[in-house]
Design goal:
By secondary structure, this protein is an alpha/beta fold. The chain has two domains: 192 residues, Rossmann fold (3-Layer(aba) Sandwich); 168 residues, Rossmann fold (3-Layer(aba) Sandwich). Helices cover 38% and strands 19% of the residues. Helix 4 runs antiparallel to helix 5 and helix 11 packs across helix 13. The longest helix is centred in the C-terminal third of the chain and has 19 residues.
């Protein structure tokens, strides 16, 4: 199979989309499929067995890590030379739109995947007036595809309500060998707790930006002076958060990846995630694989992952008091927290990447087959 991918974000930036895409390119290479990736410039010229074509982009003022490539960028020649059987556009906003339009001109089947709730984030950023126009724009883009993939059932329901067509769930996987309770390490626990290894450690992993609502953890720390908080990640809100938590037992590690990230998960006791606009929540799945109970909003794709009352608590998405109550209950009952973490680990082991990608490739094959001309049926005339 020959697949061309268009993404709005790629290495060196690391986020849920890039993480998923890298795992997918590894999988395709291992199984002999051929692929080509169109992405903003600045990343490697090749990943796994996939050549990467980079295009210059303009950094967004409020999200400088994300470079927007013009939707009018010409991608005709490299796409024709590659001769793909299918085009997959990930989170199409600009470069993905260029890929979708060219695929249509070349009469190629198109799969689009929805990854980020940009309209919901606009609301969180104080730009609620943009919500309806953004929904209209992204619905128009996605409804040109032969198939639209959603990361969770909750997201599929929301997009169906918004008028998206031809929807199917493409969930995500996790590396259960890397993210595991077996990675627990005393030196990492010492680092994350500021040396107080016997105190409960709350862990947040993710981008530090307004929509993630990490500031919601302030009343938790104020009400529970015996706990420690480790914040893994970086972003534009880090200076504000550093000031907010300045006099509290909080450790900022910055961005972590690979085995360091896995060790950080395993060294903690409880995963806290206040963001309420996640289409899935890859970090939640990594925390579960690491044996941590999860406290997160009862919203978005996280509902597909956390079994409320069994592997964690899903709380009122607009109530800080609800989050505090759930964290307090687990801190007060560490044995119950450990039991929840073990159940979360069991759930995570059913979400291996290879199974996820097997189903994706089956979907690719079905779309390719649908778009192929069907042989004329013979008829009998009496």
């Amino acid at each position: 199979m020959r697949i061309a991918f268009f993404t709005e974000t790629f290495l060196p930036k690391v986020d849920g989309i890039v993480n998923t895409l890298c795992h997918l390119l590894d999988y395709l290479a291992q199984r002999g499929h051929e692929s080509l990736l169109f992405a903003p410039e600045g990343g490697p010229p090749r990943y796994a067995q996939t050549d990467v074509i980079g295009y210059p982009g303009t950094p967004l003022p409020f999200y400088p890590e994300l470079k927007i490539v013009s939707p009018f960028t010409s991608v005709e020649q490299p796409l024709r030379r590659f001769r793909p059987q299918l085009v997959h556009v990930l989170n199409p906003v600009a470069l993905g739109v260029a890929g979708l339009n060219e695929a249509r001109r070349q009469q190629l089947p198109v799969v689009a995947s929805y990854h980020t709730d940009i309209p919901g984030f606009a609301r969180r950023w104080g730009m609620g007036a943009l919500y309806d126009p953004l929904v209209t724009l992204f619905r128009w883009i996605h409804n040109q595809a032969d198939l639209n993939l959603c990361p969770s059932e909750a997201t599929r329901r929301e997009l169906a309500f918004q008028g998206y067509e031809r929807l199917s769930v493409w969930t995500r996987g996790v590396d259960v060998a890397r993210f595991s309770p077996a990675r627990r390490d005393h030196s990492w626990r010492f680092r994350l707790s500021g040396g107080e290894v016997n105190k409960p450690i709350l862990l947040y992993v993710g981008r530090l930006s307004a929509e993630k609502r990490v500031d919601w953890l302030l009343p938790v720390l104020q009400a529970l002076p015996g706990v420690r908080l480790a914040i893994v990640g970086d972003g534009p809100a880090r200076p504000m958060l550093a000031d907010l938590f300045a006099d509290l037992p909080v450790v900022f590690t910055g961005y972590l990846g690979g085995d360091d990230l896995a060790a950080a998960y395993a060294a903690a006791d409880l995963f806290v995630f206040p963001g309420a606009n996640e289409t899935l929540g890859n970090v939640v799945l990594e925390a579960m694989a690491s044996g941590l109970p999860v406290v997160a909003p009862n919203a978005g794709g996280i509902q597909d992952l956390v079994q409320n009352g069994r592997s964690g608590f899903l709380v009122d998405p607009e109530s800080q008091a609800s989050m505090l109550s759930a964290v307090s209950a687990l801190v007060a009952n560490p044995a119950f927290a450990i039991e929840m973490g073990a159940i979360g680990r069991e759930i995570a082991t059913t979400r291996r990447w290879d199974r996820v990608f097997e189903r994706l490739v089956e979907s690719y094959a079905a779309i390719i087959q649908q778009r192929q001309p069907q042989p004329a049926r013979s008829s009998w005339v009496e």
